[in-house]
Amino acid sequence: MATAPVKTSRKEPVWDVVVIGGGPAGMMAAGRAAERGAKVLLLEKNETLGKKLLITGGGRCNVTNAEQNARKLLEKFKDSNKYLFSAFSKWSVKETLDFFNGRGMETKVEALQRVFPTSDRAQSVWNVLVEYMKEGKVTVRSNSEVIGFEHENTGEENLTENNKAASGKITAVKIAVVGKTKTIVKGKQFILATGGKSHPETGSTGQGFEWLKEMGHTIIEQDAALVPIALKDEWPKHLQGITIKDVKISLFQNNVKQHTAAPAGGTTKGRILFTHFGVSGPTILNMSRDISELLKYGEVVISLDLLPELDYGKLNLKLQEILKEHTNKKFRNSLSELVPSAIVPVIVGLSKIDPETWCHSVTRGQRLALVQLMKAIPLNVKGLLGVNKAVITSGGVKLGEIDFKTMRSRLYPNLFLIGDILHIDRPSGGYSLQLCWTTGFVAGDSVSL
Q1: What is the tens place of the pLDDT at every residue in 232-289?
Q2: What tens digit of pLDDT does each residue of 105-144 get?
Q3: Across-strand partners of 43?
Q4: Which residue has better confidence, 291 or 446?
Q5: Over residues 175-183, mean pLDDT
Q6: Exposed (0-12), middle (13-18) or buried (19+): which is 269, by Cβ within 10 Å?
Q7: Which residues pair with 229 in a beta bridge?
Q8: 12 — alpha (psi -120 to 50), left (phi > 0) or beta?
Q9: Closest CA to 235 of 268, 279, 292, 269
Q10: Among 17-31, 89-103, 277-291, 322-336, whose mean pLDDT is lowest?
Q11: Measured between alpha carbons, how far is 129 from 445 in angstroms, rounded to an integer?
């Protein structure tokens, strides 16, 4: 992978393909286009490539989801699935796994079919992509911030509500190189992979949307899609960093269970991660859109059932057995058989039973209240953390303006749009990166040679 010096616009070559954005989608697109023989330049505003990729999944990188049935996989993309089928028929989960495994990166499948590198390091994914680009002799220019497109209109416009036909051609991009003067980079084809607005500290500031809007594309307003939840309660802060598995999570408003997009009519089961501000983790992230909508109408309570495998009656009997077995123990030392020891002090505190009470002295009323608590611990929602803390953002280019067989813009035939620049909602669990691999590959595979 060559590193090119900054050249003046007079000496600048005309590239076969110019890729804007060195994230996962951009690197995949650049690698595939170069593999096919194109002369490729990748422009990255940061000093290094894949800055957001390296922090995804807590630095472990959820590469994809192991669901290899394309139709089942695409159901997770909701209303976008009708657009995505042609792209995913060319490159989906199997191709992604073959790509990374075939280049020496072993993978493993964890809960919810999430696929991670066995190294548990996002760096492993980064290494494969960079090596892929090196093989194709992709030229990379870091510290090169694109500040706009140069384009010309053909006058051949055919715009309708649901379809926009070719109306122009991109001729070049304007870039500002750190420590250098602004210059022009000319190309025959351009692939835009600048991402959404999540984690702006990694360079995803939404600039691409502004350029596309000015050029006539319809942009659906960006909003946080998968985002952690802030709580009013203080006690979750004491569990910072603790993850609890197999918790049943429900949403309530005005003491009424809310039927949302989550499985089982508003109730879902999975992991919950406690943080210094509230809660996170894949299950919570996937419910954040519903929580955001409910907050428009009033206060929201997240209810946690710590023992979903036991109904109220069975849990009551189990608790009776434990208190009887530990009759001469203090109450505070009796619950670790039921719940993880890390959260026992919290349960004891919320129960309002004196921790020093002997187990044989716990009353029937206290025991029944404890059962109720462990089946429905309330978390009072304060709000969502916002776009800057979102895993992904919703919104982006209107899908009807893209040919998904090639990822080509319907307005500009030599412009391809990929990754988070697209208006595609998806859950946590490997779906976002699979979208990057698929759209990036299809774009790189579709450029003209």
Answers
A1: 999 999 999 999 988 999 999 888 888 655 444 557 888 899 998 899 888 888 888 7
A2: 999 998 779 899 999 999 999 999 999 999 999 999 999 9
A3: 20, 141
A4: 446
A5: 68
A6: middle
A7: 279, 384
A8: beta
A9: 279
A10: 277-291
A11: 16
Contacts for 82 with CB less than 8 Å, ≥ 6 apart: none
Is 177 in contact with 143 (CB distance < 8 Å)? yes
Which amino acid is residue 70, in one-letter code?
Answer: A
pTM: 0.70
pLDDT at 386 over 70: no
Q: What are the residues whose beta carbons fall under 8 Å from the beta carbon of 143, sequence distance 6 or more?
A: 44, 45, 46, 47, 177, 178, 179
Measured between alpha carbons, how far is 120 from 57 in angstroms, rounded to an integer? Answer: 10
